[in-house]
Amino acid sequence: MAKIKVFIDHREGSKIVDFVNQICEVEIVQLPLGDILIVGSDGAFAIERKTSADFVNSVRSNRLWEQLLRFMKTDEIWEHEIKRRILVIQGDFENYLDFIPSIYPKRALQAFWSSMMGAQLETLFVYETPLLVVENDEAFCAFLNTVLKREKEGKNVKIPEARWYRKRKRSDLPVKDGKLFLLAGLPFIGEALARRLLNHFHSIVNISNASQEELQEVH
Q1: Mean pLDDT (the chain, rounded)
Q2: Phi/psi of residue 40, each to 5°?
Q3: Domain of residue 60, residue span
Q4: Cβ neighbours of 121 (radius 10 Å)
Q5: Would you state the torsion angle of the CA atoms of residues 36, 135, 51, 61, taken in this order, to the nearest 10 degrees?
Q6: Is 88 helix (H, G, I), strand (E, B) or coil?
Q7: Does the predicted TM-score (pTM) go above 0.85?
Q8: pLDDT reported for residue 203
Q9: In a domain, 124, yes or no
Q10: Is residue 162 one of the residues assigned to a domain?
Q11: Where in the chain does DSSP place strands (E)?
Q12: Residue 206, SS3?
C-alpha cells in the first residue's frame, strides 16, 4: 500500500483538515493551485473545490475559464507531477432559484439551468477536467475518504479487474470444472455457491430449469 501525503490550502476549513488528518499525514500550506494536493509515489492528485455560489459567480464573471485553463495546463506543483485532477462543486444550485426575476420566470429559469449545464459540460469536454457535485461537507469528506483509500491502494492508476462479466470457458478444463467456471462467472454467484448448485442439481440444464423455490433451497 502506497504512502501518501496531503497538502491542504490554508483557506480550507478545519473540519476538512481534521478529517484528513485522521487518515494520513497533512500539511497546511498556501497552494499555488487548487485546494487539496494528494501526493503519492506515482505523482499527485489535485482537487479544486468550489461552493455552488463560487461556481455560479465565476461563470457569470467569466473567471472560471481562466481558472480551469491554469488547472488543466499546470503539469506540476512543487516538483510533484500532477497525474490526476478534479473539480468538486459543493452545494445546491437551487438556492439560486430565489433570484430568478418574477418577469418571465420560465424563460429566466431555463436560461439559468442552460448556463449551469453548459458550464459543467465545457469543464468536462473543453477543459478536460473531471467534475463531481457533492451536497455538503459530509459528502465531500466521504469523497475524500474514497479518493485517499484508492490512492493508497493504487486503484486510480490502473483499469480495475472486471468482476461482473461472464468469464470465458477454458477448453482445457475438465467438464465438471468447466461448468463450475461458467457458473462462477455469473453475477452474484461466485465459486462457493456455484459448487453447491452443481452438487444439488448435477447439471447447468437442471439449474436453468429449476424454479425460484427450488433454487432457494440451496444455501
Answers
A1: 82
A2: -125, -170
A3: 5-153
A4: 11
A5: 130
A6: strand
A7: no
A8: 81
A9: yes
A10: no
A11: 5-9, 25-29, 36-40, 43-51, 76-77, 80-90, 131-134
A12: helix
Distances (CA, A) of 19 to 6, 39, 45, 145, 151: 12, 17, 18, 9, 16
Are 200 and 126 contained in the same domain? no
Domain tally, the chain: 2
Domain CATH number, residue 85 = 3.40.50.10130
H-state helical runs in 126-203: 137-153, 175-184, 190-201
* H helix or E strand, kind and range, residue 96: none
pLDDT at residue 160 is higher than 70 = no
Task: Assess contact for 9 and 31: CB atoms under 8 A.
Answer: yes
The Cβ of residue 138 has, within 10 Å, a number of other Cβ atoms equal to 11
CA dist., res. 21 & res. 147, Å (int) = 14
Instruction: Give the pLDDT band of residue 173 (cuts 50, 70, 90).
Output: very low
* Residue 100 pLDDT: 58
